[in-house]
């Protein structure tokens, strides 16, 4: 069974691939090597003037400069160059601090993120923001909306 993080990364990769396919659909006619620079310029302006169905089906217009950038990217790296890089955000809050915060919340489910932050600050002189703690508790199912122990 995939963890929530792995599932989120899979969804992001799938979204990035859809975006790459959309970009290719937009520029595919302009990739013809038989086109002269003048013909390609006319075609790119036509592409930029159209409204396209975006990756999610919403109407999207693409600026001429963006079409040109996608064409250059295709020439350098093929399809993979059209797929945006997956954003990988490493947590800035140490795992030990988040574990301690979760332990404090489990110990007393009625504790708010503000109270947990106050305890952490008293214990170590530092605490993550209350909002960071709220998001962490929500991920673990320890927030008030999901906790059946209140």
Automatic annotation (TrEMBL):
SUPFAM superfamilies the record matches: Homeodomain-like (SSF46689)
Protein name, UniProt field: Helix-turn-helix domain-containing protein
Native organism taxonomy: Bacteria, Bacillati, Actinomycetota, Actinomycetes, Kitasatosporales
InterPro entries from the UniProt entry: Homeodomain-like_sf (IPR009057)
């Amino acid at each position: 069974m995939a963890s929530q993080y792995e599932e989120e990364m899979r969804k992001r990769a799938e979204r990035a691939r859809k975006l790459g396919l959309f970009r290719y659909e937009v520029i595919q006619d302009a990739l013809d090597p038989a086109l002269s620079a003048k013909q390609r310029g006319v075609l790119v302006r036509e592409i930029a003037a159209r409204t396209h169905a975006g990756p999610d089906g919403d109407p999207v217009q693409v600026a001429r400069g963006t079409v040109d950038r996608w064409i250059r990217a295709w020439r350098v790296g093929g399809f993979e160059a059209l797929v945006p890089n997956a954003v990988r955000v490493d947590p800035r809050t140490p795992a030990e601090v988040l574990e301690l915060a979760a332990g404090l919340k489990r110990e007393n489910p009625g504790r708010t993120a503000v109270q947990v932050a106050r305890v952490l600050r008293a214990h170590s002189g530092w605490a993550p923001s209350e909002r960071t703690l709220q998001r962490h508790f929500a991920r673990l199912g320890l927030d008030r909306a999901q906790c059946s122990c209140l």
